[in-house]
Amino acid sequence: MPVERLLPNREAEELLKLTAELARDELKPLAAEYEEAERFPREQFRLLGKSGLLGLPYAERWGGGEVPYEVYLQVLEEIAAAWMSVGVGLSVHTMSCFALAHHGTDEQRDRWLPGMLEGQLLGAYALSEPHAGSDAAALSTRARLDGDHYVVNGTKAWITHGGQADFYTTMVRTGDGPTGAISCLLIDGATPGMAAAPPERKMGLTGSTTAQMIFSDAAVPAGRLIGGEGAGLRIALSSLDSGRLGIAACAVGLAQAALDEAVAYAKGRTQFGRPIIEFQGLEFLLADMAAAVDSARATYLDAARRRDRGLPFGRQASVAKLIATDAAMKVTTDAVQVLGGAGYTRDFPVERYMREAKVPQIFEGTNQIQRMVIARALKKS
């Protein structure tokens, strides 16, 4: 069923209409096939680029759409509802552009940002490492300045689009101090000395390639340093605030898709002479699912509107990510229950939705980390 949205203007309404049509006609029909085959949807990302959807929240000067974040996130929700792997990929790509768009020089932005925003290039965000996940400041991938190049050595882990991306926004250690020694490099995907390990074998989002990236004396031009040496952790954390909103929107899209499947099935499935949606046990279950979806959507929109107004939104982003991803896990699980035995089969998409709902509770900062962020903000208030 179409989501009733309160959008800020007619242009946003037209954008959401275009997105819904593209998602329905070009993405949803392919999702099950690609996920089953673990096939990366590169052409679909090119289609998003041609449709102007890969750079929505960024400036028109460099090829972006310059739309409010609350509008971009609702576009993202529509895409994730049709195909979660593509929605998550769009969110990651948008986050990968953040460092250059917000912390690069005009010369750097003029040179690289148009290709990143107009769909020619696909991005990845390389922060985590095998021994530095939630503790991002513990990263050990090192970049040593040698003349006009940084020589990079180390391993990045859990990289969405690893081995598929055209550029990697990569956090590296450039000094011996703690957090101040972390810097951000925009690394070309064809850089010699950089290679992807075999993709991870995942329970869900199997169309989205996730892999370690291994750097062995990879030479990166010094001009690809973003924001100056020592600015990397600050850039990474600000990127994550916005990225968490993207994941929240994707989780809401996934939950909405599961709710729609459950309602449609409950209307069509008859037991004891009437549709099962008329039984109170199912009515209450579906009502709780709908309330969870609506509540989760409200949290990410609240945070996005604060961001659009230039207000602090870090705590609200953590609340949105926590609420939306926990809701997606519960709603997709309940959708399987509504469908009963049919929900446990691959004849219906809800079993895939349930598998896909788990990882949003983990990436962009686990939900335990989100609770720590929220609690720390409360202590400072």
UniProtKB/TrEMBL annotation:
Keywords, ordered alphabetically:
FAD, Flavoprotein, Oxidoreductase
Coiled coil, from the record: none
Cofactor(s) it depends on: FAD
In terms of domain of life, where is this protein from?
Bacteria
In this chain the Acyl-CoA dehydrogenase/oxidase N-terminal domain maps to: 10-119
InterPro entries recorded: Acyl-CoA_DH_CS, Acyl-CoA_Oxase/DH_mid-dom, Acyl-CoA_Oxase/DH_mid-dom_sf, AcylCo_DH-like_C, AcylCo_DH/oxidase_C, AcylCoA_DH/ox_N, AcylCoA_DH/ox_N_sf, AcylCoA_DH/oxidase_NM_dom_sf
Which parts of the sequence belong to the Acyl-CoA dehydrogenase/oxidase C-terminal domain?
A: 230-378
Q: Which PROSITE patterns does its entry note?
A: ACYL_COA_DH_1 (PS00072), ACYL_COA_DH_2 (PS00073)
Q: Where is the Acyl-CoA oxidase/dehydrogenase middle domain?
A: 124-217
- One Pfam family of this chain: Acyl-CoA_dh_1
Q: Which family does it belong to?
A: Belongs to the acyl-CoA dehydrogenase family.
Q: What is this protein called?
A: Acyl-CoA dehydrogenase family protein
State the organism named in the record: Amycolatopsis cynarae
